[in-house]
Every structure is written in C-alpha cells, then in structure tokens.
Amino acid sequence: MKRSEFNYQLPQELIAQYPLPGRSDSRLLCLDGVTGETVHRRFTDLAGLLRPDDLLVFNNTRVIPARLWGQKETGGKLEILVERVTGSHTALAHIRCSKSPKPGSGILLAAREGAEPGPYRLQVTGREDALFAISSEGGPALTEIMGDIGHMPLPPYIEREDEGSDQERYQTVFAEQEGAVAAPTAGLHFTRELLDEISERGVRSVTVTLHVGAGTFQPVRADNIEDHVMHAEYVQVDDAVCSAVRDTRTRGGRVIAVGTTAVRSLESASQHGDIAPFTGDTDIFIYPGYRFRSVDAMVTNFHLPESTLLMLVSAFAGKEHIMNAYASAVEHRYRFFSYGDAMFITAGAGKS
C-alpha cells in the first residue's frame, strides 16, 4: 500500500495554534466505520453517545517539560528534546545543532532560546542510533532541571513558542505518570465535569500508560508503508485493565479507546489473542489490513497527512470512509491536530 494514498490537502489556517477557551468547546465529527456516515456534533455530546455498559480507556501519561536550550561548551547553540528519561540523572534525547556533539562533550543550559547559559550543565555520554545519551551527574536530577528551565514540547506544526498556559492545556486533566514528550491529544478535550457526567451514566473507565515519544511526529518516508519502521514507546497495561476489557465484552458493552495511544496500548496487549497484562516497549504499526482485537470505538483528533496515525484510523474505519470524513472536516472548517477538534469513530471492517 502506497504512502501517497493517505495524503490530503489541508489549508494552513485550519491547523490549530492555540486551544479553544474551554477544553470541551471543540467539535466532534462522528463516523460510522461500517456505513461511512458522518454526523457533526459538539464534544459535549460525547456522553450521550455512550452506553451504560461501555468502557472508556484513557492514557494517563503526563507530558514532561522536555525541550531545553543551550550551547556546547565549545560555543555552538543547540536544542535538546528529551525522548526518554532513563534514570534520575540520565536520559536519551534528540539534539539539534550545526554539528553533532561527541561523547564527553559538555552542554551549558539556558532558560530559553538565545539566553545566556545558567548554572546547569549536561554531558553527552554516548549515542544510541539517532538519540544521544545525556547526563546531569554531579548536579541536580535531570527532572529537577527540566522542572526549572524546561519548556513544553509543542509539536512542530504549532508555529509559536510555548507559553505559560501550555503547562496546563497541553496536559490532560487525568495525567499522572510522567514520561511523555507529546500529549495524548484526544484526552485534552475532557474536563472533570464531563468525566463525572460520563460516570453518572454508568460508563466505566480505566487507564493505561503509553509514554508518547517524539517519534509520533516522524513522517513515513517509505513509499510502501509496509517498509516503514516504527519507533518504540513504553507501555503498561495492567491486569485490572485486562479484566475490565473482558468484563465489558461479556456484558455486551463496547471498549472505547481515548486516543490512538490507548488503541496501540490495548492492541499491543492483545497480540497473542486474548488481552493480557503487558509492560515494556511496543513498536506496533497498525495500517489497513490489521484486525483489531480489543477496541470497538475510539475518540481521536485529526492526524497529519501520510502519518502512521492516519493509517491506524484508516485500518479501523476503512481508508475510504476516513478520507471522506477528513474531506468533510476540511469543508466544514474543523480545527486540526493537537489543539484541534475531535472524532468519535466506531469500528468498521477492521474489527475481528
């Protein structure tokens, strides 16, 4: 299957640069994965689309202030994006600069881009493929440094610097487990009030953890999508989640994943058939032809052209249905991507 089959035209002005004033103020495009029918709603309508026997599965990862600025001790300016914290003082990170730092190089950190370096220093200790191993050994913990001078890692299509409000709005209200460098954006639409309303309707909810990595924005470069190599992300699906999924199925309810990260978590835990506890890295790549084992519906944002996430939702509801729905969203001036509007999709032919 060709990458070009997942392309679509998106006017630049439809890419949301800021969130709406209220989390649930967004629109909700509902897509029936069997018929392809679309209905335009508000996100606050979601509670009315759920049934008492349904199960919502949220990703409780918490975004860390993973973007750092500074310079090499030899003088070259650089930008760091922490990909994964590996210890109290260590991490793997992307480093962008004119010349890649060598192991043993020192990095002097600054509070913001272009500022003079402050007291914090990191050292490059090695390299793992495209990532650099960095350490703050001999100084404060790396998480402490990020908490002091780190910036929220807004996606590259948000063409502005992060602001104070992003500390709250680029974070779900149920975020608990620190480790993501990108938000599970479908969850950004939920407020405490909406969650309470959903619970009062008898809908149960559970949480998984998938620490979203910067690789989520990595474009598919292979012409044939089957040749694409997925990045790995840490996932935890515990026994309580597995029991809730099985109980929901027994009751005839639907398992509804909030976000593609929740989808990938559940499907990673279901690779051998029945869902089972899973902890570790996953590089699951879901594209048309995949048979879903544990997900009946999903809440998701709109995804970039030719992205792995657009391929995932196409596998779930059918590529033609998805591309038609996206064309309708463009026509009706929906807001796209992380701070944009949402979809509620029920399973199509990709459900086993």
From TrEMBL:
PANTHER family: S-ADENOSYLMETHIONINE:TRNA RIBOSYLTRANSFERASE-ISOMERASE (PTHR30307:SF0). This is S-adenosylmethionine:tRNA ribosyltransferase-isomerase. Its EC number is 2.4.99.17. Keywords: Cytoplasm, Glycosyltransferase, Isomerase, Queuosine biosynthesis, S-adenosyl-L-methionine, Transferase. Coiled coil: none annotated. Transfers and isomerizes the ribose moiety from AdoMet to the 7-aminomethyl group of 7-deazaguanine (preQ1-tRNA) to give epoxyqueuosine (oQ-tRNA). Gene3D superfamilies: QueA-like (2.40.10.240). SUPFAM superfamilies: QueA-like. InterPro entries: QueA (IPR003699), QueA_dom1 (IPR042118), QueA_dom2 (IPR042119), QueA_sf (IPR036100). GO terms for biological process: tRNA queuosine(34) biosynthetic process. GO terms for cellular component: cytoplasm. GO terms for molecular function: S-adenosylmethionine:tRNA ribosyltransferase-isomerase activity. Monomer. Its main location: cytoplasm.
